[in-house]
Design brief:
Blueprint lengths: L3 E6 L6 H10 L5 E7 L10 H13 L8 E7 L3 H7 L4 E6 L2 H17 L4 E6 L9 H9 L10 H12 L1
Parallel strand pairs: 1-2, 1-4, 2-3, 4-5
């Protein structure tokens, strides 16, 4: 039976931390669905199509024989409903700090009430990426700081282009 994992997020923009979690998740499942949340309430810097395109470009670099196949899909519904739709048995989440755990713990408890058949698996962020947050990357870029350590060169270029406009 195919093990399907779902890694959801806004990915505005995708960071090295996200890519680390994706690369590690690919070892745990046969198919990994990257769920890109519409999240209009968060007022993303990148429109949905741009975030999907960036994610597809970055994930293409991770494709190797023996690792999970990756699909990038948008979603605008309850996470558990989307997980059911893509036949995910596992939701993968990255944790950076205690504050992440508190939020994720609450979400996991609620999701468990909605569907107890889907497990949530937490992966600790690599030490190099524990402070990286998309929100902070955007703020650093907005004020002319160097975002090189936090995103790939392709994503950096896209972010800088946004702030030139």
């Amino acid at each position: 039976m195919e093990r399907v994992g779902l890694y959801p997020g806004t990915f505005d923009p995708v960071t090295m931390g996200h890519m680390d979690i994706i690369a590690r998740s690919m070892k745990l499942v046969d198919r990994l669905v990257i769920g890109v949340a519409v999240s209009e309430a968060k007022r993303p810097l990148f429109i949905l199509e741009e975030r999907i395109e960036m994610m597809e470009e970055e994930c293409a670099r991770l494709t190797k024989p023996g690792l999970a196949k990756i699909e990038v899909k948008p979603f605008d519904k309850l996470l558990m409903h989307f997980a059911e739709e893509v036949n995910a048995g596992i939701i993968l989440r990255g944790l950076r700090a205690v504050s992440d755990f508190e939020y994720e713990f609450q979400m996991t408890a609620m999701n468990e009430q909605l569907n107890s058949e889907i497990e949530t698996v937490f992966l600790m962020a690599d030490v190099r990426h524990q402070a990286v947050a998309s929100r902070l990357v955007k703020e650093i870029a907005r004020f002319g700081g160097d975002i090189t350590p936090f995103v790939t060169p392709t994503v950096k270029e896209r972010i800088l282009e946004k702030f030139k406009k």
